[in-house]
Amino acid sequence: MSADAGVNTRLAHVGHDPFSYHGFVNPPVVHASTVLFPDCRTMETRAQKYTYGTRGTPTTDALCEALDELEGSAGTIVVPSGLAAISVPFLAFLSAGDHALIVDSVYAPCRLFCNTMLRRLGVEIEYCDPEIGGGIESLMRPNTRLVHTEAPGSNTMEMQDIRAISEAAHRHGCVVTMDNTWATPLYFRPLDFGADISIHATTKYPSGHSDIIMGSVSANAKYWPQLHDAAITMGICGSPDDSYQILRGLRTMGVRLEHHQKSALEIARWLESRDDVARVLHPALPSFPGHEIWKRDFKGASGVFSFVLKVDDAGRFSKKAHALLDTLALFGLGYSWGGYESLAVPVNLSDRTIRKAPLDGPVIRLQIGLEDVADLKKDLEAGFAAAAAI
């Protein structure tokens, strides 16, 4: 395949050579625990490609190869969830006595893992402002070993200057990890901007159908051996069935993302024009504080963003938000995103230490699915009317 092939062409062909399997278009689903060796010497030296089910199968390898091509990475592991995709590299690169800098707008389960498991294991955790950029150098200590980023930030969508952060971190010998689930490698490639590790909840857009839980971790050449060894040591691996489903989802991800992006931007602009909305938190809007970074570094936007419902009385934040959300019929009330259906959730920011919750109203996060925009607007209109009645 040509190196300058388009996104959808690449997605249609990455990760599999049909003529390796008798011409079948899709790779086979290989279920395996035991792998047989032809003789003792081969067994003792592990001198064959596959040795045990936890170390990969043709199916999981096909997915990893596809992700490597999309990420520009030296190697990828697939794991059972997005949270595992965060926790495995943390455990791979951090030891007792190390200091880690974590962006304050991080995915909430990541914060819980840091505050419980990592602290119990003797790792010092410090949260930093998502907009600190190269200023993160002032937070570096002699024992700082890892900087974790996420752009845009969970729920409030703050942008991060990944290149500036990576350059500062590398001057101090730190590994830089990034949760890139929102953008996917189609709209942002962390390793091209200096990050060492790109993390995805493939549960989201690569799956696209709200039926698979999985994660991936892709590393550059410097950190791939250590990441790979840690995954093998911990026995963390994705299943062949889930890998097959994610591969199938990848084939249409480009087309789906275009639709998600277009619909989400139309709804975001419509929300921005409403008097009952205080702010719309979407990086692709010129009004958003991180818009210039998004415009400079990203190739597109996905279907997830938030807005602040305008409420004058803080005592009615929850009541107004609940009235709006409970009225919705097309938007489901559910966690996760990236599927074909639209979702909405009330955002809880009580765990933040630096970027606190807005004072002008409750935050509501939307995932814009594949439905028609006109129908989604009608659904939201009903929600706003219910909120106004409170």
From TrEMBL:
Residue positions where N6-(pyridoxal phosphate)lysine is found in the record: 204
The EC number(s) this enzyme carries: 4.4.1.8
Any GO BP annotation: L-cysteine catabolic process to pyruvate
GO MF, one example: pyridoxal phosphate binding
Named cofactor requirement(s): pyridoxal 5'-phosphate
Catalytic activity, reaction form: L,L-cystathionine + H2O = L-homocysteine + pyruvate + NH4(+)
Any matching Pfam family: Cys_Met_Meta_PP
Uppermost EC category: lyase
Keyword entries, A-Z: Lyase, Pyridoxal phosphate
Family per similarity comment: Belongs to the trans-sulfuration enzymes family.
Entries under PANTHER family matching the protein: CYSTATHIONINE BETA-LYASE-RELATED
Record protein name field: Cystathionine beta-lyase, PLP-dependent (Beta-cystathionase)
